[in-house]
Amino acid sequence: MKRLAVLLTVAASTFVIAGSAQAAPRFRVIQWNLTHMCQVYDFGWGGRPIPSNYRILTPPMRSFGAAVHAKQVLRARGACLI
């Protein structure tokens, strides 16, 4: 029983450490080449959009709200369809 408690404590602390070591969000507005539709995407988690036929339109932004605002500005200028 004590081994189980130690194991659970180690597992819980591993999740806390791993959670605090995650990369900071880096939201960007991307545009899909075929449709010219824009999307807010978080490059901070380490993955890339699939398929890879997109363009990055903005520099990294710290918040989702800032990226949505940038997307609205791009749409008003006619750079994005949606």
Which tags fit this structure?
82 residues; single chain; three-stranded antiparallel β-sheet; alpha+beta
Structural description of this entry:
The chain is α+β, with helices and mostly antiparallel strands and 82 residues long. The protein has one domain. It is built from 2 helices and 3 strands; from the N terminus they run H-E-E-E-H. It has helices spanning 2-20, 64-76, and strands at residues 27-32, 38-42, 54-56. The chain has a 3-stranded antiparallel sheet. The longest helix has 19 residues, at 2-20. It is globular, with a radius of gyration of 19 Å. Mean pLDDT is 80; it is low at 4-20.
Work out the helix count: 2
Rounded average pLDDT:
80
Give helix and strand order, one letter per element, not per position.
HEEEH
The level of helicity is: 25-40%
What would you report as the Rg, rounded to the nearest angstrom?
19 Å
How much of the residues is beta strand, in percent? 15-25%
Q: Write down the overall geometry.
A: globular
| Widest sheet, order of strands | 2-1-3
Distance between the termini: 57 Å
Number of distinct beta strands: 3
Sheet bearing the most strands, described? 3 strands, antiparallel
What structural class is derived from the secondary structure elements? alpha+beta
Low-pLDDT windows of residues: 4-20
Q: List the domain count as a whole number.
A: 1
